[in-house]
Amino acid sequence: MRYLLILFICLLISCEKKVSLFNQVSYLNSKIDFRNDLTENQNFNLVEYLYYYNGGGVSTGDINNDGLVDIYISSNQGSNKLYLNLGGLSFKDITDLSGVGSEGEWKTGVYMVDINGDGFVDIFQTRLGGYKNIAGKNELYINNGDLTFSERASEYGLDFEGFSTHVAFFDYDADGDLDIYLLNHSVHTERSYGSSELRFNKSEKSGDKLFENKLNEGNFKFKDVSEKSGILSSNIGYGLGVSLSDINRDGCDDIYISNDFRENDYLYINNCDGTFSESLEEYIRYTSRFSMGSDISDINNDSYPDIMVLDMLPQDEKVLKNSVGEDSYEIYKMKLGFGFNKQFTKNTLQLNNGNGSFSEISQLLDLHATDWSWSTLLEDFDLDGNNDIYVTNGIVRRPNDLDYISFLSNEKIVGGLVQNPDLDNRDLVGNMPEGKVTNYAFRNESNFKFKDVSNDWGLNYLGFSNGATYDDFDNDGDQDLIVNNINDKAILYNNNSKIISENNHLKIKFEGDHFNTQGVGAKVTLWVNGKIFYKENFLNKGFMSSKSSGLNFGLGEIKKVDSLSVLWPSKKTQKLFSINANQIITLQEKNATIKQNFKKNTNEIFSDLSDKNLINYSHNENLFNDFNRERLIPFMISREGPALAVADIDGDEINDIFIGSPSFQKSELLLGQQNGKFVVSDQKHLSEDYLSEDVDAIFFDVDNDSDLDLYVVSAGYEFSELTNSLKDRLYINDNNNFYRSDKLDQIIQHNSVVRNYDYNQDGYDDLFIGGRVVYDGYGKSPKSYLLENQRDGSFKIDTVFDNLGMITDAQWQDFNGDGLKDLITCGDWNNVNLFYNDGKSLIKDLNFIGNNIYGWWFSMEIADLNNDGRLDVILGNQGNNNKLKPTDSSPIKMYINDFDENSRDENIITYMDNGKEYPLANKDELTKELNYLKRDFFYYKDFSGLEINEIFTDEILEGSKTLSVNNFNSMVLINDGINFIKKDLPIISQVSPVRDIQIFDYNKDKIIDILLFGNNSNVSTYFGTFESSYGILLEGKGDGTFNYINQKKSGLKIKGDVTKILSLDKNKSKFVIGKNNDKISIISLVNEK
To answer: How many other CB atoms sit within 10 Å of the CB of residue 151?
Structure first.
């Protein structure tokens, strides 16, 4: 009985102990005892070489073709190690036997691949050489087939000496052998600084190189074809990551290069003729700033590869505030002026839209901040059919620590570096704080949702992890991990997916023709029950690392694959059907015979007519920086134009367009023509008002004389309320000539919106005017107005709304079915207000759901979304692709007060993190605005990690005007006849601010569909930029919910800050799009253009 009780207790304990997805394999069992230990000395350290702490790579491959994957690990200073897989996750160190120790400093990336097509895996080692006291050239170890290798880099023309980081092998010219992209980096010199034109200056030691393999011609020597093929080879390319993929799915392999510091990342699109076009800015709106490791894989199972690039944004509040942040807005704009692309300090995940564009969504998925990150691996680790993410982290010393930078700026230190020979570089390094960080794992839960499972999966190692890759070391059908750490043992992780779940898999091996024996670059697509899975057989996986050839598909509960298609680099294809899961299949190129044709997508819903030159107008903003006046506001208010209004002015049954200009540019009236073009109508009074900044406008008949007059709203934020150009204007139409009226009440403030409706039912349209902002007082509530039409072309103020807040949009619609239109408004740091019209006054609905939803609202539209006869509300908000994620329990707040008693209010924005409230601004930003704080916080460490009530007294905070936001989602409010029900729009709708909305029925199914447009690039550099939308088409399902129509199908690819979209015809088949500081666009439904 006693023994039964003990057995029961043991079983109970065993059942309660949860087995994590990964477990570390003890080196006592694995025999992998490798350490990448760094020994700094006076001659070579971080001060002398800025990439001293980048660590080493790791590579995997089957060197003896026994079906077991072996491991090669790179040491910066010591001996590399080659471990032969004996099975059962046990390995044998055969470094000395094999002759691949690669002794001496300074080794970087490693790669295992069959370079000469003899069927045996070779090893390529990149090195730093010819710098300081470091000598060394890149090495190529050719496999002799007997567990020994011979170094033959010189014989192959690959013994490059310089600043090599890593290599990538692929058949870029589809000739049957493997070519090499050599990724190099640079160090800071006087030649590193200047404009982007420096990227065209060749650097022999720092510039990247492309080597063409001539094996198919019987020549072992590789040929440098960098210049001929269009590869940039300058010393401003601080290359830290190289990834390969067929980005645009044209069958030719493209290259993504992640560059550190100011230089752009590079996206080389393969022209399929032996050349590449660097096309990053054509495809991608912005990138990481200190780009490090990268990986490319399909994260949403749409068969288009997505790009993840790592940076060094800390998640920890104290580390964040003690680290160098974003550039000031002036420096950021200066870099753009030098020709560099937009870059921000955060991880980026570029979602491939399938139409030559990417939407950056890292913040939407909470993947943007993993600290000092190196390897990112996108792979299905739990075999559920979705690619997960693993990230390695850590830096031995943090050179970007602000207190350390201040220490270096000390006069005694600066002078000592020159005058004091006893000042040791190691002393300088010793003043940097340590940067141990845990590694991260994110589980892909599908539908653009990732969960941090670092702890749950057993992958939260704390240290300095750099190179890493995955492979199936025990042949059990799931991907294990090998991680290279600085000053610690390498870690082998065993994946327990096959133990803890019943998920299925399919493993693919490749046998290529000619010299590409491993089928590097082959692409495989699986189809199962309407689902699609896509992977590419490229070996660059992990920072300075690589994996063996082969693919592993997680299938979840799927037990049989309907069909499989493989595309080889030769463009040959093969298709298999009805494949059982949980097996290894070998695809042979000799069985692929059909050459695949790549056709351009011709089934788009919308066509962009911008290149047809239908409108010759560009909105050109004047130079004004809101942040110079109010440093702590989140975004500019001065850049909310252009104004747009559409109507048939001249009675020819073709709509005309009014385009409201920024300050110092004429607004224009453009008349529509039979050929679809628009020509300028000369309007003297419009031209005279060029100082005004126009943000909204409407055509309506003010005086009931059967023609349309024009009301224009002025704003801009740069002019005070004493400025005449800030007045709204009313233009009376007299035989298609518009004359400025002098009968408009003198409302001089920054307004946002005008909406017309005869609210007193006297037969003349009245106006609601929304106030946008108080001059030099962001956050204070401007006045909004009801203007009553006096029936003589003039208006008088009927109602003043003093506390409606900063209004951004409004609509008149009849929500309660009484025949009178009601007023609904939304705004910035504001809620959504509904006022019912009883024919005499507007009465606020105190029970309306919008009263409690506070956002950075930009737009709204009203429609019956579920065909129940009741009007619903569509609301355009900031979106959640943002560092800030406000909720009811964790709101964003803005405190408005004269904190420094200089008779001028400041704005202090805060956010919540784990129940604590922190300031958005860092020490430099706050003390620049509030100089007195410098006395309280001399060191950055005195400030970092402080909550807002540790910086300001409770008395000051409680005495401040406080605004809050609890929701950034764009949404719909569904009217059920009694209440409104909130429903968020699909997650992809949250990628950017929604600044305007159009409703229509594109597919003629009598259900409302929605067009969303937006973006906002004129924001504080803390936020980076919000430019991930190209226009979003949502197809109505008839129940108030919507399906996102992907960009490839919708055809929408409108870049820029869209502030207005209006229909150009009554069928709503053609739309005019107003973009801030950009050309006007027109889009049309393809089947009706």
So the answer is: 17
